[in-house]
Amino acid sequence: MNDRCTRDRSPGVFVPNRNRRRAAMGCAALVALLSAPVALAAPASATTTAPVVDFNGDGFADLGISAPYATVSGVDYAGYLSVVYGSSAGADTAHPELITRATPGVPGDVTQYDDFGRWTAARDLDGDGYTDLVASGYETPVVLWGSAQGLSGGTALPSTTYQAAAGDINGDGHADLVAAVGGALEVRFGPFTRAGVPVSTDRLAFDEDDGPQDFAVGDVTGDGKDDVVTQHGFEEMQYKSRLWKGTSTGLSRTFKSSGYYTVGGIIADVDKDGHGDFIARDVSNVSETMAYEPGDIRVVYGSASGFSTRTKKINQETAGVPGVGESGNGDTVYGDQFGYSLAAGDVTGDGYPDVAVGVPGEGIGSHREAGAVVLLKGGPSGLTGTGAQAFNQSTSGVPGASEEGDHFGTSVLLADVNANHRADLAVGTPAEDGTYEDSGAVWLLRGSKTGLTTTSIASFGPSTLHVPEQGSRFGTDFTR
Q1: How confident is residue 16, by pLDDT bands cut at 50, 70 and 90?
Q2: What is the 3-state secondary structure (H, E, C) of the chain?
Q3: Residue 128, Cβ neighbours under 10 Å: how many?
Q4: Tens of pLDDT, residues 179-202
Q5: CA distance 226 to 171
Q6: Of all residues in the chain, what percent carry a pLDDT higher than 90?
Q7: Are 69 and 45 contacting, i.e. CB atoms less than 8 angstroms apart?
Q8: pLDDT tens digits along 133-145
């Protein structure tokens, strides 16, 4: 393993990879941050009321699943996206769509170390009623356009960007794209033309070595304009996260600190008071030991003025939360990493967003780092441990078996795949072995009135979908 690095869109974490090229932002932080169990991505952002990702407009949420390490057309680490469409029966694994640089209409060439599909964002960018997909690796980012037949065609986006998230920053009802470009954030205002051109662009620049590691998009203030929360760090040091308000002309030029050192994060109104709440992994200001920690998440509640003083820390010692937080040994054994991945959605249909928490370092029985997922329920009091649920591959009814190093829960997504008004939980486990090592797999647990259920669980990997399998790390991330 060499000293080159990749920046994953996981909770602000940097990890080494074999023969990787440097990403745009924060690569110097690698020196101190061996802080993830595997080189995987986790959720980037979620809006206060997340729109349905529905590429074919049939009302069922669709899954975009990243496999950035896959070999495509004989080229290793080229990467692909697999789209599994939703239906009344759940995930329609019989009719998947494979998207690579070799797919007709997709700009660019299949290139080694592109990692195509590593970063994605979804929203109706051209305003035609179908969700569009922004996908990128280390080469040119592209937009794939939604239609009644699903995703088709593609347009190259101007300028290089490795990470993007969608929202409505100026509150005009059109989707905007927030993109990391060099050390800056660009807001590209919609609607976009089919040439990928926005109406206008706003650029928020940062000082050298202070560019955001990661960012989340959502309406914290409740004014109808999405805000952006950025996370920052340099080398082994982590900085406090910052809220940049959305305005009619773009992002504000002043920020409000959350007061906490956090990485990753989502925005969801878990107490349904009209203000988005920021939920992220809570860390110390020194990040180099992050991988070996039990893990905590921090909820910073929103208000009309931005971040409020109301906050809560939740971990596996919190009343009602299953499991016990365990640390690693600072060498070869990772900690539980509660909060490594996060996703929000209303699982029970009561109107309050719930939060799925990935715990990929959780030991199950004698199996170290087998991984688990915990569901925390939202309600009038906000996010608590009351009624929390936990699932792993040893849970009765869950297909498969817990094995050392699986890292079940490395990525999570809550989406209503069968359109029954209750979010379902998709769990990505890129280190799962199939026919080959690290093929990866996804589990889909259904939502119900009482929470997640093990009834009618779907599980599938590359072999099920007839897509490239060997070492692909299928399930590295989900499109949202």
Answers
A1: very low
A2: CCCCEEECCCCCCEEECCCCCCCCCCHHHHHHCCCCCCCCCCCCCCCCCCCCCCCCCCCCCCEEEEECCCCECCECCCCEEEEEEEECCEEEEEEEEEECCCCCCCCCCCCCCCCCCCEEEEECCCCCCCCEEEEECCCCCEEEECCCCCCEEEEECCCCCCEEEEECCCCCCCCEEEEEECCEEEEEECCCCCCCCCCEEEEECCCCCCCCCEEEEECCCCCCCCEEEEEEEECCEEEEEEEECEECCEECCCCEEEEEEEEEEEEECCCCCCCCEEEEEECCCECCCHHHCCCCEEEEEEECCEEEEEEEEECCCCCCCCCCCCCCCCCCCCCCCCCCEEEEECCCCCCCCEEEEEECCCCECCECCCEEEEEECCCCCCCCCCCCEEECCCCCCCCCCCCCCCCECCEEEEECCCCCCCCEEEEEECCCCCCCCCCEEEEEEEEECCEEEEEEEEEECHHHHCCCCCCCCECCCECC
A3: 14
A4: 988 889 999 999 999 999 999 999
A5: 7
A6: 78
A7: no
A8: 999 999 999 999 9
Task: Tell me the CA distances in angstroms from 126 to 19, 209, 406, one per residue in order.
Answer: 37, 34, 39
Structure tokens at 370: 């087998």
CA angle 337, 342, 343 (to 5 degrees): 160
Q: How confident is the model at residue 50 (pLDDT cuts 50, 70, 90)?
A: low
What confidence score (pLDDT) does residue 51 get?
74
- The per-residue pLDDT for range 267-290, each reduced to its tens digit, is 999 999 999 999 999 998 877 778
Q: In what order do the strands lie in the sheet with 90-99?
A: 63-67, 80-87, 90-99
Cβ-contact 77, 114 below 8 angstroms: yes
Determine what percent of the chain is predicted with pLDDT higher than 70: 89
Cα torsion 412, 52, 213, 80: sign: positive
Contact 5, 377 (CB under 8 A): no
Gap between the Cα atoms of 250 and 238, Å rounded: 26
Q: What pLDDT score does 30 carry?
A: 26
Residues in the chain: 480
- The CA distance from 46 to 15, in Å, is 23
